[in-house]
Design brief:
The chain has helices spanning about 5-15, 30-45, 80-90, 105-110, 145-155, 165-175, 185-200, 205-210, 215-230, 245-250, 295-305, 320-335; strands at about 20-25, 50-55, 75, 90-95, 120-125, 135, 230-235, 240-245, 275-280, 285-290, 305-310, 310-315. About 45% of the residues are buried. Helix 2 (about 30-45) packs antiparallel against helix 6 (about 165-175) and helix 6 packs antiparallel against helix 7. The protein has a six-stranded parallel β-sheet, sandwiched between helices. With about 350 residues, the chain is an alpha/beta fold. The structure holds guanosine-5'-monophosphate (5GP) and manganese (II) ion. Manganese (II) ion binds near residues 32 and 144.
């Protein structure tokens, strides 16, 4: 895959002189959000720009190993005015791994304070918003990290990818493709992985850091959710699971601990769609996964004010858990009656 040459030229022109830059990524940032932000920040800093990475809230604790992550400003925990200063003073605002400003939640109000900065989208979600000066949007790309790797390669040559950039990019490429197993994986993804591997990164170490560095509480919580909270219905083809605040407390829940749970029901033969509902302070977060042609992006848009990709999407519910689960079962029935499931 290649990023369109005219986009590269536009980007090059924007970066021709030293710029004050803010890189933003989405709420509940994941490996792709953090990895792409850090790698893109390092590239821009190497080129002499001043860069601040900001995310709306904290990323999961097991991503703490990612090179440079200590420098990310976490807006929700920010006790000083560093985020405000960076945003107000920015010439360019890069938006990575999300497609609409609504995914920034509270942080979007801060961005509205700066109307003069150019906004550039680098993303792989479907249906990107309109409010960008430059859109590098490739929904067929398996991750934003893959897009950042291509950008760096096309702008400066693959020799510009450092070992720390490669580590960060590999995390997003690995996590957003389910370990290089999803249908979005192409031969070119492996070509890029080979460039990253050439920098000397340790793939086993990255794998251990991302997938084998959880707490004991997380392992026990997983057992509990699968054993006690997984409901399978619709002839064994749909599953839902849920977690409420008191259950999280019982297992010393830390943000990110339920990441990946939603994939597990899809290991059952015949399963077509899986949903995980997690109680947060202000809403219930909905996480959806599907197999093959079943489109959970449309499902998330239609019923949970969300979106994402065809086989992995999310959204929110403002109702009680009981009501949310009841409605989910009703929506599944409705979706099936339309031939969508
Ligand atoms: P996850 O279930 O891993 O949190 O999210 C799966 C996919 O859905 C991700 O690509 C994520 O960006 C997208 N997604 C999750 N929550 C929301 C949401 O509230 N709104 C939108 N538009 N997309 C979401
Ligand atoms: Mn992504």
């Amino acid at each position: 895959m290649q990023i369109a040459v005219n986009k590269i030229e536009e980007l090059r022109a924007m970066l021709a002189t030293p710029q004050r830059i803010v890189i933003l990524s989405h709420t509940n940032p994941d490996g792709d959000a953090i990895g792409s932000s850090l790698a893109w920040a390092e590239f821009l800093q190497d080129k002499g720009h001043q860069v601040t990475c900001i995310v709306p809230n904290r990323y999961p604790y097991y991503l703490d190993f990612m090179p440079g992550c200590q420098s990310i400003v976490i807006y929700k925990n920010c006790s000083d005015d560093s985020a405000m200063k960076a945003v107000k003073g920015a010439d360019l605002i890069f938006c990575l791994d999300f497609h609409t400003m609504s995914r920034l939640e509270g942080l979007s109000e801060l961005i509205d304070e700066n109307q003069h900065a150019k906004r550039i989208l680098i993303d792989h979600h479907l249906d990107p918003g309109e409010d960008f000066d430059l859109m590098i949007s490739y929904p067929q790309a398996s991750s934003t990290c893959y897009l950042v790797a291509l950008l760096v390669e096309q702008m400066c040559g693959s020799g510009c990818i450092t070992k720390s950039m490669a580590e960060n990019l590999f995390v997003g490429m690995m996590t957003d493709t389910g370990n290089f197993a999803f249908s979005s994986v192409t031969p070119d993804v492996f070509r890029v992985v080979s460039i990253l591997a050439e920098t000397g990164i340790s793939i086993p170490d990255i794998h251990i850091n991302v997938y084998n560095s959880f707490t004991e509480g997380r392992a026990r919580l997983f057992g509990y959710v699968i054993n006690r909270k997984m409901k399978i219905f619709h002839n064994g083809t749909v599953a839902h699971m849920s977690l409420e605040a008191d259950e999280m407390k019982r297992f010393w829940f830390q943000q990110g601990d339920s990441e990946g749970f939603v994939n597990y029901p899809l290991t059952i033969k015949k399963m077509k769609m899986s949903a995980m509902f997690t109680q947060h302070s202000d809403c219930i977060r909905v996480s959806l996964r599907s197999r093959g042609n079943i489109d959970v992006n449309i499902f998330a848009q239609r019923y949970f004010n969300g979106g994402g990709h065809k086989n992995a999407a999310g959204g929110k519910s403002m109702l009680s858990m009981e009501e949310t689960l009841r409605l989910f079962e009703k929506y599944v029935k409705e979706y099936a009656e339309e031939g969508m499931l």
